[in-house]
């Protein structure tokens, strides 16, 4: 992934607003809206996202689907706001954007093959997780770069996380937190039963990972790519989509890489 921090954000030009529909999101949006001139999302050079991390993921996925990804500056009007900047009622959005630092991140390209043979291609900015659909333990074969590394993982499932997503579900599943510039992916089992001692792996982000569901009729598995769920999975193939690189903007001293380091020392 290389050096993720660049000298500065591009000078503010045409701005669009993407706000959470929650009461708090709309309240903050009303304040921010009065600090600048705005245009339609498809005409913008920079997108200001107001809400929580879920709203940020919604905005990024919307831009990936439409094929025009612009730099994004988040304003926290949610709970955690890991991908967002702090909100102050007196904030000047133009000044914030002028001084913002940029960080480039790339999502996972997910190619999911269903039990019926259909294929769905989606993207995961945080992680792709495979989860058992019933009370039956999932059984999953894991391959890396065409070589089988785990012939049969038995448990609730498995996930592959980017550095951006390493502090989310991956961390809750006892996976490692990855620095943004680590050029790594976290492969983490979810409540594993066998092999009992396997705690996961850290892989170079050039790796291609394949999950194959074993005994799918008896042990159905779903795939969740951020907020997109696909059920009755046969196989999932994953790789970093460098051609879909995205730029996140942060206030100086409030950058995402610093938050990732700080998260490892949180009590």
UniProtKB/TrEMBL annotation:
UniProt record similarity statement: Belongs to the NAD kinase family.
Localization (cell): Cytoplasm
Reactions it catalyzes: NAD(+) + ATP = ADP + NADP(+) + H(+)
Essential cofactor(s): a divalent metal cation
Superkingdom of the source species: Bacteria
Catalytic activity, EC: 2.7.1.23
Gene Ontology terms, MF aspect: ATP binding; metal ion binding; NAD binding; NAD+ kinase activity
Positions with a binding annotation for NAD(+): 53-54, 126-127, 156, 164, 167-172
Species assigned in the record: Croceibacterium mercuriale
SUPFAM superfamilies on file: NAD kinase/diacylglycerol kinase-like
PANTHER family in the record: NAD KINASE
InterPro entries, per database record: ATP-NAD_kinase_N, ATP-NAD_kinase_PpnK-typ_C, NAD/diacylglycerol_kinase_sf, NADK
Biological-process GO terms, alphabetical: NAD+ metabolic process; NADP+ biosynthetic process
UniProt protein name: NAD kinase
NCBIfam families (alphabetical): PRK04761.1
């Amino acid at each position: 992934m290389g050096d993720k921090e660049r000298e500065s954000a591009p000078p503010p030009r045409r701005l669009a607003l993407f706000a959470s529909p929650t009461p708090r999101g709309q309240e903050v949006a009303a304040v921010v809206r009065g600090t600048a001139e705005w245009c339609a999302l498809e005409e913008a050079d920079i997108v200001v996202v107001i809400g929580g991390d879920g709203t940020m993921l919604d905005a990024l996925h919307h831009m990936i689907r439409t094929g025009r990804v612009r730099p994004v500056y988040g304003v926290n009007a949610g709970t955690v706001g890991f991908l967002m900047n702090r909100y102050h009622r007196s904030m000047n959005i133009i000044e914030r954007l002028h001084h913002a630092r940029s960080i480039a991140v790339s999502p996972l390209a997910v190619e999911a093959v269903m039990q019926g043979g259909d294929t769905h291609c989606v993207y995961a900015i945080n992680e792709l997780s495979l989860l058992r659909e019933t009370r039956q333990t999932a059984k999953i074969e894991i391959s890396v770069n065409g070589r089988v590394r785990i012939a049969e993982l038995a448990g609730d499932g498995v996930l592959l996380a980017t550095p951006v997503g390493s502090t989310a579900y991956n961390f809750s599943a006892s996976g490692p937190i990855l620095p943004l510039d680590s050029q790594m992916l976290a492969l983490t089992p979810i409540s594993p039963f066998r092999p009992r001692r396997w705690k996961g792996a850290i892989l170079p982000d050039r790796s291609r990972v394949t999950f194959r569901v074993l005994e799918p009729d008896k042990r159905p598995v779903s795939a969740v790519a951020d907020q997109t769920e696909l059920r009755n999975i046969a196989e999932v193939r994953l790789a970093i989509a460098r051609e879909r690189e995205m730029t996140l903007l942060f206030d100086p001293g409030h950058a995402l890489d610093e938050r990732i380091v700080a998260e490892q020392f949180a009590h």
